[in-house]
Amino acid sequence: MRHTVVKVHASILRAACLSAVCVAVAGCSLVALVPEHQETPPAAVSVVVEITGSPGVTFEGSLGTAGATRTISGQVPATYTVNSAVALAVNVTNKGPDGDLTVRVLRSGAQVAQRTTHAPYGTVLLVYKP
Protein backbone atom coordinates (compact mmCIF):
# COMPACT_ATOMS: atom_id res chain seq x y z
CA MET A 1 0.00 0.00 0.00
CA ARG A 2 2.81 2.38 0.85
CA HIS A 3 4.40 1.76 -2.56
CA THR A 4 1.14 2.76 -4.33
CA VAL A 5 0.92 6.00 -2.34
CA VAL A 6 4.50 6.85 -3.34
CA LYS A 7 3.66 6.24 -7.02
CA VAL A 8 0.65 8.54 -6.81
CA HIS A 9 2.70 11.26 -5.20
CA ALA A 10 5.47 10.79 -7.78
CA SER A 11 3.02 11.11 -10.70
CA ILE A 12 1.53 14.26 -9.18
CA LEU A 13 5.04 15.66 -8.71
CA ARG A 14 5.93 14.83 -12.33
CA ALA A 15 2.78 16.60 -13.59
CA ALA A 16 3.56 19.65 -11.48
CA CYS A 17 7.16 19.72 -12.73
CA LEU A 18 6.07 19.36 -16.37
CA SER A 19 3.67 22.24 -15.91
CA ALA A 20 6.31 24.42 -14.22
CA VAL A 21 8.95 23.66 -16.89
CA CYS A 22 6.47 24.31 -19.69
CA VAL A 23 5.49 27.70 -18.26
CA ALA A 24 9.05 28.69 -17.33
CA VAL A 25 10.68 27.69 -20.63
CA ALA A 26 8.04 28.32 -23.29
CA GLY A 27 5.33 30.27 -21.52
CA CYS A 28 2.79 27.64 -22.55
CA SER A 29 0.03 26.03 -20.52
CA LEU A 30 -1.21 22.44 -20.32
CA VAL A 31 -4.18 23.40 -22.48
CA ALA A 32 -1.75 23.72 -25.38
CA LEU A 33 -1.19 19.95 -25.18
CA VAL A 34 -4.73 19.24 -26.44
CA PRO A 35 -4.79 18.33 -30.16
CA GLU A 36 -6.06 21.11 -32.38
CA HIS A 37 -8.05 18.76 -34.64
CA GLN A 38 -10.60 17.47 -32.16
CA GLU A 39 -13.94 16.59 -33.73
CA THR A 40 -16.98 18.70 -33.03
CA PRO A 41 -19.87 16.68 -31.57
CA PRO A 42 -22.58 15.96 -34.13
CA ALA A 43 -25.74 18.04 -34.09
CA ALA A 44 -28.84 16.43 -32.62
CA VAL A 45 -31.47 15.22 -35.05
CA SER A 46 -35.16 14.77 -34.40
CA VAL A 47 -36.58 11.31 -35.02
CA VAL A 48 -40.09 9.94 -34.59
CA VAL A 49 -40.62 6.52 -33.01
CA GLU A 50 -43.87 4.82 -34.02
CA ILE A 51 -45.10 1.78 -32.13
CA THR A 52 -47.78 -0.08 -34.07
CA GLY A 53 -49.18 -3.56 -34.29
CA SER A 54 -52.32 -5.63 -34.05
CA PRO A 55 -55.35 -3.72 -32.72
CA GLY A 56 -55.56 -3.81 -28.94
CA VAL A 57 -51.93 -4.79 -28.32
CA THR A 58 -50.52 -3.17 -25.16
CA PHE A 59 -46.82 -2.64 -24.59
CA GLU A 60 -44.28 -1.45 -22.04
CA GLY A 61 -40.62 -0.62 -22.28
CA SER A 62 -38.19 2.25 -22.64
CA LEU A 63 -36.75 4.60 -25.24
CA GLY A 64 -34.10 7.27 -25.40
CA THR A 65 -30.38 7.89 -25.48
CA ALA A 66 -27.67 6.93 -23.03
CA GLY A 67 -28.20 10.08 -20.99
CA ALA A 68 -31.98 10.36 -21.23
CA THR A 69 -33.96 7.12 -21.16
CA ARG A 70 -37.64 7.13 -20.25
CA THR A 71 -40.18 4.44 -19.48
CA ILE A 72 -43.06 4.09 -21.91
CA SER A 73 -46.26 2.06 -21.92
CA GLY A 74 -49.58 2.11 -23.67
CA GLN A 75 -51.62 0.66 -26.48
CA VAL A 76 -50.78 0.71 -30.19
CA PRO A 77 -50.57 2.96 -32.06
CA ALA A 78 -48.26 5.32 -30.16
CA THR A 79 -45.82 7.98 -31.35
CA TYR A 80 -42.84 9.57 -29.59
CA THR A 81 -40.37 12.25 -30.72
CA VAL A 82 -36.73 12.05 -29.62
CA ASN A 83 -33.79 14.40 -30.27
CA SER A 84 -30.45 12.60 -30.40
CA ALA A 85 -26.93 13.13 -31.69
CA VAL A 86 -25.87 9.61 -30.77
CA ALA A 87 -27.63 6.26 -30.71
CA LEU A 88 -31.32 5.92 -29.94
CA ALA A 89 -32.50 2.71 -28.25
CA VAL A 90 -36.08 1.45 -28.13
CA ASN A 91 -36.96 -1.65 -26.11
CA VAL A 92 -40.65 -2.61 -25.93
CA THR A 93 -42.47 -5.79 -24.91
CA ASN A 94 -45.92 -6.99 -25.94
CA LYS A 95 -47.80 -7.38 -22.66
CA GLY A 96 -50.14 -10.04 -24.09
CA PRO A 97 -50.01 -13.48 -25.64
CA ASP A 98 -51.46 -12.40 -29.01
CA GLY A 99 -50.71 -9.89 -31.75
CA ASP A 100 -47.80 -8.30 -33.54
CA LEU A 101 -45.72 -5.41 -32.23
CA THR A 102 -43.70 -3.17 -34.58
CA VAL A 103 -41.29 -0.31 -33.84
CA ARG A 104 -40.41 2.10 -36.64
CA VAL A 105 -38.00 5.04 -36.59
CA LEU A 106 -38.66 7.92 -38.99
CA ARG A 107 -36.23 10.71 -39.83
CA SER A 108 -37.60 13.64 -41.85
CA GLY A 109 -40.66 11.50 -42.59
CA ALA A 110 -38.66 8.61 -44.09
CA GLN A 111 -38.39 5.25 -42.38
CA VAL A 112 -34.78 4.53 -41.34
CA ALA A 113 -35.27 1.47 -39.11
CA GLN A 114 -37.95 -1.12 -38.27
CA ARG A 115 -38.26 -4.23 -36.10
CA THR A 116 -41.28 -6.50 -35.49
CA THR A 117 -42.12 -9.37 -33.16
CA HIS A 118 -44.86 -11.92 -33.72
CA ALA A 119 -44.08 -13.88 -30.54
CA PRO A 120 -46.43 -14.05 -27.54
CA TYR A 121 -45.09 -11.55 -24.97
CA GLY A 122 -42.38 -10.76 -27.55
CA THR A 123 -39.81 -8.01 -27.20
CA VAL A 124 -38.51 -5.63 -29.83
CA LEU A 125 -35.05 -4.08 -29.37
CA LEU A 126 -34.13 -1.47 -31.94
CA VAL A 127 -30.99 0.69 -31.90
CA TYR A 128 -30.64 3.50 -34.42
CA LYS A 129 -27.58 5.69 -34.87
CA PRO A 130 -28.29 8.90 -36.83
SSE layout:
Blueprint: H1 2-26, E1 45-53, E2 58-65, E3 68-75, E4 78-84, E5 88-94, E6 101-107, E7 110-117, E8 123-128
Antiparallel strand pairs: 1-4, 1-6, 2-3, 2-5, 5-8, 6-7
Share in helix: 10-25%
Question: What value does the Rg take, in angstroms?
Answer: 25 Å
Largest sheet, strands/sense/barrel: 4 strands, antiparallel
Measured distance between first and last alpha carbons: 47 Å
Cross-sheet strand order for the largest sheet: 4-1-6-7
What is the second-level CATH architecture of the largest domain? Sandwich
Following the backbone from N to C, one meets helices and strands in this order, namely HEEEEEEEE
Structural class: alpha+beta
Summarize model confidence as the mean pLDDT. 79
Q: What overall form do the CA principal axes indicate? A: elongated
**Name of the CATH class of the largest domain:** Mainly Beta
Give a description of the structure:
- The protein is α+β, with helices and mostly antiparallel strands.
- The protein folds into two domains: 2-33; 45-128, Immunoglobulin-like (Sandwich).
- The protein has one helix and eight strands, in the order H-E-E-E-E-E-E-E-E.
- The strands form two sheets. A four-stranded antiparallel β-sheet has the order 4-1-6-7, with no helix packed on it. The protein has a four-stranded antiparallel β-sheet with strand order 3-2-5-8, with no helix packed on it.
- The chain is elongated, with a radius of gyration of 25 Å.
- The two termini are 47 Å apart.
- The model is unreliable at 1-34 (pLDDT under 50).
